[in-house]
Amino acid sequence: MIVPTKKDHQSIAADLLNRAFEPEEATKILTEKVIQRPLFLCPTSPPPADARRARHLAAKRAKEQRRAKALKPKPVSATQRKKQGLYQIPKEGQKYALFEPLHNLWLGYIREILGSEVYTGGEAAAAKLASADFHGAGVEVVRSGCVSRVGIKGIVVKDGKFAFELITVKNKVKVVPKEGTIFRVEVPVPVITKTGEEEKKESRMVFELHGDQFQFRSADRATRKFRAHFSKTL
């Protein structure tokens, strides 16, 4: 039985590399990746001399693991987040002007998602809008089971599961439940002429969101598939 030597392995590698690369490139790869390839060795501790030593080492490792687990910070619960007011906008931050850049970013984001369908609309555009994130969108309440909510207009600062939190032009935060409410959203669209140039005037794409069919978190909507179906409320 003939055992291949290290030199034989290198000649086989050289033959394979010469088939795939130019001679100079093959020689470079063989030298750097095969012949001069560093071999990293992990230092290991010597095995314990007896069973008592082995038990001592096992207990020491278990103690270190328990200590590391105890020092690891625990995640903040929903009750603690609510008490600390992590989801609340401070009084000094309740200004409409602070959220206007966010609204401009959202307009660019929604135009990029819709693409050419921003001019045509249709079911494909509706499916994209249903899975979009509405943080920063400018919405207006056009219908509601509570008449006093009709006409509320502002920028969405929180897209919750059951409600939109809006900041109005008067620097007031309004919480509008989605249930029984229809929201209107307008997206400015540049007018493109036949020559492919943009005109100074803009048209607007207007669509309405039925809050009853929109009671999902933005993160859940991104992976959810919406299907067209009959609704009694429409």
Features of this protein?
tRNA processing, flat, RNase_P/MRP_Rpp29-subunit, Ribonuclease P protein subunit, six-stranded antiparallel β-sheet, 8 helices, RNase_P/MRP_Rpp29_sf, alpha+beta
Q: What does this 3D model show about the protein?
A:
- Its main location: nucleus.
- It is found in: Nucleus.
- This is Ribonuclease P protein subunit.
- Belongs to the eukaryotic/archaeal RNase P protein component 1 family.
- Keywords: Nucleus, tRNA processing.
- With 234 residues, this protein is α+β, with helices and mostly antiparallel strands.
- It is built from 8 helices and 6 strands, in the order αααααααββββββα.
- The chain has helices at 6-20, 23-35, 51-71, 78-84, 96-114, 117-120, 123-130, 218-222, and strands at 138-144, 153-159, 163-167, 173-177, 181-192, 198-210.
- The chain has a 6-stranded antiparallel sheet with strand order 4-3-2-1-5-6.
- The longest helix has 21 residues, at 51-71.
- The protein is flat.
- The mean pLDDT is 81.
